[in-house]
Amino acid sequence: MDVNFYVTCIGDALKSQMARDSVLLLEKLGCRVHFLEKQGCCGQPAINSGYIKDAIPAMKNLIKTFEVNDYPIISPAGSCSFAIKSYAKYLVNEPDWAIRAEKIANRMFDLTSFIVNQLNIVDVGASLKGKAVYHPSCSLFRKMGVKEEPLTLLRHVKGLELLPFDNMETCCGFGGTFSVKMAEISGEMVKEKVHHIMDAHPDYLIGADVSCLLNIGGRLEREGRPVKVMHIAQVLMSNEEELCH
Q1: In this structure, how many other beta carbons lie within 10 angstroms of the beta carbon of residue 223?
Q2: C-alpha distances in angstroms, 193 versus 4, 26, 49, 187, 200?
């Protein structure tokens, strides 16, 4: 199957390993991955800050970029996926663009739901020994309704024990620009999240949105917690042979 990969700004600038593992995983599962070089920011920071007009050029750029083919568009971030799937409502005053945006939205998938629901794969052959907690990001879980797919994939990772923890579905406090504009509140939210995570005594914190992982991981590091933070793509590309080196 041919697919487009949407790398996201964080994947491009900060977390290239996550982007690389996402592509390698898709290839491992039989996909031919296309990277359209004209892709850019989805406009989410501006959208979340209320600057819709300023975000429209970025929206139109992505729409035009992904119109060159009709392949599924896969993103390793729920927040970016949801932003792109929401374009049509922001372009309602430009009906032609809104229609084009809706067509793009219908081809947009987050990595985990694409693997489980489109490729019909639940076991990717990964292996990772240890105990882990999974943080469901607000964009993926609340906005896109993707809840069981990441958990299904993780439950099939050989050697990995998934642990429950209190208030796991509570926001970590990142929220994009919220963590900047409301830094004190955000700080208390992530502090509480880390407290609940550490009560479970995990070896790993796993998530499907790098932005949340950066936020929670930063707090874990500041507290000196020995928990390895991993995007789910990294986990699904793990195997025992790699872990031995």
Answers
A1: 12
A2: 34, 31, 24, 10, 11
- 123: Cβ contacts below 8 Å, ≥ 6 apart: 156
Q: Tell me: the pLDDT tens digits for 54-74? A: 999 999 999 999 999 999 999
Q: What whole-number distance in Å separates Cα of residue 186 and Cα of residue 47? A: 19
Tokens found for residue 134: 């999974």
Of 33, 26, 21, 35, residue with least CA distance to 115: 26
pLDDT digit string (tens) for 132-161?
999 998 888 888 899 999 999 999 999 999
- SS3 for the chain is CEEEECCCHHHHHCCHHHHHHHHHHHHHCCCEEECCCCCCCCCHHHHHCCCHHHHHHHHHHHHHHHCCCCCCEEECCHHHHHHHHCHHHHCCCCHHHHHHHHHHHCCEEEHHHHHHHHCCCCCCCCEEEEEEEEECCHHHHHHCCCCHHHHHHHHCCEEEEECCCCCCCCCCCCCCCHHHHCHHHHHHHHHHHHHHHHHCCCCEEEECCHHHHHHHHHHHHHCCCCCEEEEHHHHHCCCHHHHCC
Question: Which candidate, 64, 63, 85, 73, places its Cα nearest to that of 33?
Answer: 73
Token pair in block for residue 197: 């995570």
Q: Are 50 and 58 in contact (CB under 8 A)?
A: no
**Residue with token string 């799937």:** 85
Structure tokens at 91: 């372009």
CATH class, domain 123-237, is alpha beta
Domain ranges for the chain: 2-117, 123-237
